Amino acid sequence: MKNIKDCIEELRFKLAGGLVKNVVIIPHISPDGDAAGSCSALAEVMQQVCLQWHILTCDYMPEYLRFLKHIPKLISYQDKPEECKRLIAEADIIFMLDHNTVKREGDLEPWVMEAKASRVIIDHHLEPDEEDIVISDTSVSSTCELLYSVITQIWGRDIINEDIANSLYAGINTDTGGLNHNSSRPETYRLIAELLEQGLDKEYVHEHIYQMNRLSRLRLIGNTLLNKLRVNEEYGVAIMPVTKEELERYRYRDGDLEGLVNIPLTIRNVVVSVLITERKERIKLSFRSKGKVPVNEWAKKWFNGGGHLNAAGGQMESPLEDVVCKLKETIPLFFEDVAVAEKKK
Ligand code: 5GP
Ligand code: MN
Fold first, then answer.
1. Which residue's alpha carbon is at the smallest distance from atom 20 of ligand 1?
2. pLDDT, tens digit (0-9, with 9 covering 90-100), for 137-194
3. Which of 48, 76, 186, 305 is placed for a possible disulfide with 299 were both Cys, Cβ 3.0 to 4.6 Å?
4. What is the number of the ligand 1 atom nearest to the C-alpha of 100?
C-alpha cells in the first residue's frame, strides 16, 4: 500500500509533465456539500494554474450549493450530453471527487470508462477502485479535508484564497453534520483554523448552507416528522418514508431533504435513522447512525449501497411499501450481524 504523500507526489509529477491541458472534474451522483466543495476548490486551483477545466455532473447540483465558486458553471449530462461526451473524450485527466468508483457517476460512467484520460480518485470512502492515481484516506472528515493536503503539497499554502477556503470548509462542515460526527481528529480543527487564516468567511458559508430555506421545504420536513416518522422502540430505529406525491405537494427541489435524516437521531435511544424517498425511477435510502452501529453494512448487504460507518446510502427498484417492509424485516437480522461481529472482536 502506497502512502498518501507518495500518491500526491505521483499526481504532482503527472501535472508537471506538461501533457495535462484539459481537466475534467466529476462529483458523485446526487452531489452533497463535500462533493460540491471539493469540485469548486479544485476548479479554482486549476483556474489559477491556467489549466482548462470543466465540472461535469450526471444529474444536478442542489440550489443551496450554487453559491460556491464555479459551481454555477458546471455542465449537466441531462442538459448537454453531447458536450459532456466531447469534454470527457478530450480530457487528459479526470478527477473523481468524493467517490470511490466510476459506478457513482451515473450516466457519465460509460463515457468515462472509454476515455483516454488518466483517472484520479480523491476520496475518503472505504475500498476505492484501482485507478491511475488513488488518493484515499478514510480517516479524514471529508474529501475536502484530504483535498487541502493535496492542494498544499502540490501548489503550496499561498494558493488557498477565500473562495477555496470557503469551498473546503463547506465540505468539511456538511460532511460531519456541522462538526458532529466523523470529526474527532485534532487535525480537522487545525485545518479549519488555517482556513480562517487564509480568508475563510464562515458566516457567509453558514448563511448560504443553513439560512436559505424556502417555506415549502420546511413544510416538507415538518410533514415528514409529524406524519411519517415511525420508531421501532425495541431496536431504536427511526424510519421515514417520503412518497413522490408528497415531494410534488411540497414543491420538492434537489437538496430539500438534506439533513432531515439526522433529526431522529436526536431522540433518546434511537441509534439508527433511515429516510426512504420515492424518486422518479428508484427508491433512495439514506442511513445515519450513532456510535459504532455500521449502517454501511446494512446498506451494502440488503440495499445495493454502502458508505461510511455512520452515514450510508442505498437504492432499490421495488415499490416504496416493499422497501419499507424489507427495511423492517432486516432490522433484527442486521442487529444480529452486529452482535456476532462484536463477539468476534
Ligand atoms: P446520503 O445518505 O447522504 O445520500 O449518503 C450518505 C453516504 O453514503 C455518502 O457518503 C455516500 O457516499 C454514501 N452512499 C449513498 N448512496 C450510496 C450508494 O448507492 N452506494 C454507495 N456505495 N454509497 C452510497
Ligand atoms: Mn464526503
1. 305
2. 999 999 999 999 999 999 999 999 999 999 999 999 999 999 988 899 999 999 999 9
3. 305
4. 22
Q: How far is the CA of 306 from the centre of ligand 1 (A)?
A: 6
Q: Looking at the whole model, is its pTM more than 0.85?
A: yes
**How far apart are the CA of 19 and the centre of ligand 1, in A?**
34
Q: Is 141 in the pocket of ligand 1 (CB under 6 A)?
A: no
Which long-range contacts does 322-325 make (Cβ < 8 Å, 24+ apart)? 323/241, 323/276, 323/283, 323/285, 324/239, 324/241, 324/276
Residue pair 134/10 in contact by the 8 Å Cβ criterion: no
Q: Give the number of the ligand closest to the Cα of residue 142.
A: 2
> 323: closest CA among 274, 257, 280, 265?
274
Residue 224's identity, in one-letter code, is T
**Could you tell me which residues come within 8 angstroms of residue 172 by beta carbon, excluding any fewer than 6 positions away?**
34, 37, 141, 142, 144, 145, 179, 183, 188, 191, 192
- Identify the residue whose C-alpha is closest to ligand 1 atom 14: 313
